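@channel sequence for tomorrow's demo:
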Amino acid sequence: INRGGIMFSNYHRELRDNNGFQFGIETYVPIQNKIFLNTGLIFVQNRFGHQSSADSQGNIVVFSNNDIQMPIFGSFEMPIMRKFDFRFLLGIHLSYRLWTSQSVPYSEEVTGNGAYPDGGNFHYPDSRQLKRFNGGMHFGLSWEYDNYYFRLRSNSSFNNLYSSEQGMPHAFYIDLGFFPIRYLNKRKKIKFE
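structure tokens (generated this afternoon):
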């Protein structure tokens, strides 16, 4: 699951973070003792809401950005616990926006005074004007036990959502995962021994 939104927007008072989800596959390659390079492909839905000050009903328009994300990050083991593998994660993420859906249309109160930014009230444009490619910083913490892991991680994008909005997407993630290859390798080792 994740919680995402738009940071550094001029209209941050009108914006609301929202819940989303993600699933995918990852792999890792040992670099040196206690350091691994992780990468993968993840489908991510990040959502945020916009409650326009011009809407007298206080309606919140929720946008759902559906992306394919490729994280590339280092995983550094922290010598804190013996039974649990505690790691610090640091790297980058690259993403491609597949499509964006909008929960409800804006009311005429918001859109009736002309199209933003040339005039009228601020509102997000047709999703075709949103940028496709993005990337940014990826960081977090991971706890591993046997073939399972639990992660708290975050990413902050470096590219604005579209040309007239200086705000950039960000999200906080909670991940649960399983290492199937590690599990199968252990099964094979036990069988042949």
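heads up for whoever presents: The first strand starts at residue 2 and ends at 7.
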